[in-house]
Amino acid sequence: MTTVLHIDSSARTTGSATRAMTARTIAELGAARVIRRDLAAEPLPHLSEAWVSANFTPAETRTEAQAQTLALSDTLVAELDAADVIVIGLPVYNFGVPAALKAWIDLVARAGRTFRYTPDGPQGLLTGKRAIVAFASGGTGIGSEIDFASRYLTHMLGFLGITDVTFVHPQAAAA
């Protein structure tokens, strides 16, 4: 049974190229289970001092307030952990990823949960997963020298252990 985590990050809820591509990708995958996360409809908070403090407190010594502070992050990590395939809509804003997607990344990049530090450097803990990224930009070509979005997202997914990353974009989708 394949589980897909479907993440849309476009601020545009209608007329969005990435939303159209992620919907098409989800339909083509025919997954048994889809976990949906719409970062425009349900914005995520940015990291705070309380979150950072709670995150760096060992789980066994966290207060109830610290556990509550991390509850949403724990849910997001559980969604990511449950997924076999992650489908992400990546519109390029100002040469980078949308703030909504960056907030999601900040909340799921957790030492000891999604990656760990080893004597040989960081090691992603979310191996064996595949990511399909729907990339759209009004003028930044994917892989171009001004495309910081696809390189950043590829790096962050790899940092978490997700190294099987495929990009689709409107030109490729039309072909």
TrEMBL record:
Name assigned to this protein: FMN dependent NADH:quinone oxidoreductase
Family: Belongs to the azoreductase type 1 family.
Cofactor(s) listed: FMN
Keyword Oxidoreductase: yes
GO MF entries: electron transfer activity; FMN binding; oxidoreductase activity, acting on NAD(P)H as acceptor; oxidoreductase activity, acting on NAD(P)H, quinone or similar compound as acceptor
Quaternary structure (record): Homodimer.
Binding-site positions, FMN: 10
Role summary: Quinone reductase that provides resistance to thiol-specific stress caused by electrophilic quinones. Also exhibits azoreductase activity. Catalyzes the reductive cleavage of the azo bond in aromatic azo compounds to the corresponding amines.
Key words, A-Z: Flavoprotein, FMN, NAD, Oxidoreductase
Catalysed reactions, semicolon-separated: N,N-dimethyl-1,4-phenylenediamine + anthranilate + 2 NAD(+) = 2-(4-dimethylaminophenyl)diazenylbenzoate + 2 NADH + 2 H(+); 2 a quinone + NADH + H(+) = 2 a 1,4-benzosemiquinone + NAD(+)
Annotated cofactor note: Binds 1 FMN per subunit.
Record-annotated Flavodoxin-like fold domain positions: 3-169
Domain of life: Bacteria
Enzyme class: oxidoreductase
Presence of keyword NAD: yes
EC number of this enzyme: 1.6.5.-, 1.7.1.17
InterPro entries noted in UniProt: Flavodoxin_fold, Flavoprotein-like_sf, FMN-dep_NADH:Q_OxRdtase_AzoR1, NADH:quinone_OxRdtase_FMN_depd
